[in-house]
Design a protein that fits this description.
single chain, 357 residues, alpha/beta, seven-stranded mixed beta sheet, 10 helices, 37% helix, globular, His_PPase_superfam
Length: 357
């Protein structure tokens, strides 16, 4: 009798565990559909220690660059020549442009488990990994001798968090404040007290124009699976060719990035540089590469050749966009001059610019 009761209890416990597992799985599936993730990796691959710097709900937002959602009116593309901007008095006759790619994301890190594969993020809003957070702190320390006056940032969590963490350790101790007015107008915080607000506040302008390239059908796809969808040579061409779009309805080419980024740069960022201010741009790999191409005066063929060198001879590549290592240009009298990196920064750039595709 005792044996029968024990067996019945075991069967009941197994049934309860199975039913609980099914219910949990259904709830997880519902949650994944609610957040819009293809497989939940952007929600479930984040460690508890990596959540502490996340912005609320940012890791489950999938921005559509064409919708203009959450896009301030001034962020609409407005091609045109640079105009004068108002605000504080510049400290010098030239401005410094600082290009900062976000730190390592949870989809770029080395996986803890074989199932957690490197994935194509693109315009999916993935947060920083622990390594990426440390890279952001290091970026702020690397800029300790460079005053920062204005910040332009993409909407995506990994770029905004990188900017925030970098500025949190910057010697200026200024507080970044997101502005919703035009970058060409006086910031809304002017006149809040008797002190010059630029002494302790940095205006931050957030725009989807600076979001990462949309990887189309490859977004969220593990790096080991893309070769099942497309042959390797085709994937390499998609990534490296200036005019080739990623497959899918919203897939973008580097030319598309140029067409949405450069007019924005000339209309809103360049005026601050012309006024002698130092501008930090916190963005993403392909946006940074597109800006480098533009600033260095490369044509499409040169861009393609440089993208090939990123894998074959990275020490000769002029388009390296390392995570968390600032790249700087001096702007003076209408010309951009690249500021040479230190030996340490160059070594870090080489080690952080590789991707498994």
């Amino acid at each position: 009798m005792k044996m029968i009761m024990g067996f019945a209890s075991l069967v009941l416990a197994t049934a309860v565990a199975t039913l609980t597992g099914i219910l949990v799985k259904k709830k997880r599936h519902h949650d994944l559909k609610a957040c819009g993730c293809a497989d939940g990796e952007c929600c479930n691959s984040v460690r508890p220690s990596e959540r502490r710097y996340q912005l609320p709900h940012a890791h489950v937002e999938h921005w559509d660059k064409r919708s203009g959602k959450c896009d301030p009116k001034w962020a609409q593309l407005a091609p045109g020549d640079a105009v004068e901007v108002t605000g504080d008095k510049p400290r010098s006759s030239f401005g410094t442009l600082i290009l900062l790619r976000h730190g390592q994301s949870v989809w770029n890190r080395n996986p803890d488990h074989p199932s957690d594969l490197w994935r194509y993020a693109g315009s999916i809003d993935i947060p920083l990994s622990e390594v990426g957070m440390q890279e952001a702190f290091e970026a702020g320390k690397r800029l300790k001798h460079v005053p920062i006056d204005v910040v332009f940032c993409s909407q995506m969590d990994r770029a905004r968090t990188t900017m925030s963490l970098a500025l949190s350790v910057h010697p200026s101790k200024k507080t970044p404040v997101v502005e919703h007015s035009s970058p060409l107008d006086n910031p809304a915080f002017e006149g809040v007290n008797d002190k010059n607000p630029y002494d302790f506040i940095i205006p931050v302008y957030v725009s989807p124009t600076l979001n990462e390239r949309n990887f189309g059908d490859l977004q969220g796809v593990p790096s080991t699976r893309h070769t099942r969808m497309f042959d390797k040579e085709h994937v390499v061409k998609i990534r490296n060719d200036y005019y080739t779009r990623f497959p899918g309805e919203n897939g973008e080419s580097c030319e598309d990035i140029h067409n949405r980024t450069i007019p924005f740069f000339n209309s809103f960022i360049l005026p601050h540089l012309a006024a002698g201010r130092n501008v930090l741009v916190s963005s993403h790999g392909f946006v940074i590469r597109t800006l480098i191409k533009y600033l260095d005066g490369m044509d499409a063929d040169e861009f393609n050749e440089q993208m090939k060198l990123e894998k074959t001879a990275p020490d000769k590549c002029l388009l390296l966009a390392p995570t968390g290592v600032p790249l700087m240009y001096k702007y003076n009298k209408g010309k951009f001059t690249k500021i040479a990196q230190s030996c340490r920064d160059r070594a870090e750039s080489l080690s952080r610019s590789t991707a498994p595709y």
